[in-house]
Amino acid sequence: KDVFQSPDYFAIDELLTEEHRLVRDAVRQWVKKDVSPVIEDYCQQAAFPSHIIQGLGQLGCFGPTIPVEYGGGGLDHIAYGLMMQELERGDSGVRSTASVQGSLVMYPIYTFGSEEQKRKYLPKLASGEMMGCFGLTEPDHGSNPAGMLTHYKEDGDHVILNGAKMWISNAPFADIAVVWAKNEQGEIHGLVVERGMEGFSTPETKGKWSLRASATGELVFDNVRVPKSHILPGVKGLKGPLSCLSSARYGIAWGVVGAAMDCYDTALRYAKERIQFDRPIAGFQLTQKKLAEMITEITKAQLLNWRLGVLKNEGKATPAQVSMAKRNACDIATQIARDARQILGGMGITGEYPIMRHMMNLESVITYEGTHEIHLLITGMDITGLDAFH
Ligand code: FAD
């Protein structure tokens, strides 16, 4: 009974199945019990709450759409989206940990890996016994990953990997890294690099003011000998990493609506209770404008996500549709966090309320997995047929 009731202005719950609601409520309960009470402290200390790994694994948040035979949940994409929404209502860093593991590590191994690679890694990644990270971004190549410098050359039944990746979520504690690198012909391939391989290190990135409860680091490869059997055989070229990103971006579109809901819910309750000039601040037109616009944008984003989920379940969602949903959801969530902060006045900047933490987190989420600008250019290219990137 005391489960959080999310804003549902257009009765979107009626579009969900019984299974969707069960999955969502299970994650919602867990976030309420195991994440929300402690997450502010972890963020203040810039520490990763490692206890969540077991919970995320038990709830099936790692690779929920991966088939059961490989340890996944065998769920549909709407169930996956709802899970991400609930996790991010807790904290974007917690959702990031699950997104990376499911969409950026398990997805490429499942989609492009050999049967042996799938059997070796997927069940352990699903349970959280093994954690992974995804290395695409480099110090000099962010929005333009095609220019990557990380490369490998053949050496018998091994390859020798050199280069560096930057801004890698989960890197400091990951057991494996799915790394995208160029071979001697300049083709991009994915390799599974394991912690402990000589010459492989993962220095932590310190001093972040955003996603402080998510561990971020570099991946440094100094003549790392990787067995050829660790190369993902099923893909070459940029479409490998880009298809992983499309899967993760879909989860982000749902996730940030969760952060927006938490900000809206907090601001609405606060505005009804806070008295100034002898009346609740919720009674002032300027406050109502903010709250009314928040719920309108949340509702629009919820409907867009639900429709995108239906298309994805039918195998019809395009990467450009995912880009639009990710960009829109991050944009509205960032604005909602800022308006919610404003409604709380001075209290809005403290850790007693979740708003400032969401607001700072969203500054990363609007940038990673394709920036706000890049997603706009993807829409632009999709509707005009003209590439404005270069
Ligand atoms: P840049 O590409 O240098 O862009 C800087 C600015 O220029 C942006 O505003 C951008 O929109 C704009 N810009 C660039 N090109 C164009 C253009 N053609 N037209 C118009 N504007 C343009 N990466 C991973 O591989 N794995 C991870 O796990 C991961 N986790 C991350 C976690 C965090 C907390 C953060 C902050 C980043 C993470 N990233 C990860 C990296 C992230 O994906 C990149 O930061 C992002 O792709 C942008 O790259 P950049 O930071 O190098 O910015």
Summarize the structure in words:
The chain has 390 residues and is α+β, with helices and mostly antiparallel strands. It has helices at 18-44, 52-59, 77-90, 92-112, 115-127, 239-273, 285-313, 319-343, 355-365, 372-384, and strands spanning 132-135, 151-155, 158-169, 176-182, 188-194, 200-201, 216-227, 275-276, 279-280. A four-stranded antiparallel sheet has the order 2-3-7-6, with helices on one face. It has a three-stranded mixed sheet with strand order 1-4-5, covered by helices on one side. Strands 8-9 form a two-stranded antiparallel ribbon. The mean pLDDT is 97. The site of flavin-adenine dinucleotide has 22 residues, from strand 1, strand 3 and helix 10.
Bound heterogens, unique: flavin-adenine dinucleotide
Helical content class: 40-55%
Category from helices, strands and their pairing: alpha+beta
Question: What low-confidence regions span 5 or more consecutive residues with pLDDT below 50?
Answer: none
Helix count, DSSP H or I runs of 4 or more residues? 10
Shape assignment: globular
Run of helices and strands: HHHHHEEEEEEEHEEHHHH
- Chain-averaged pLDDT: 97
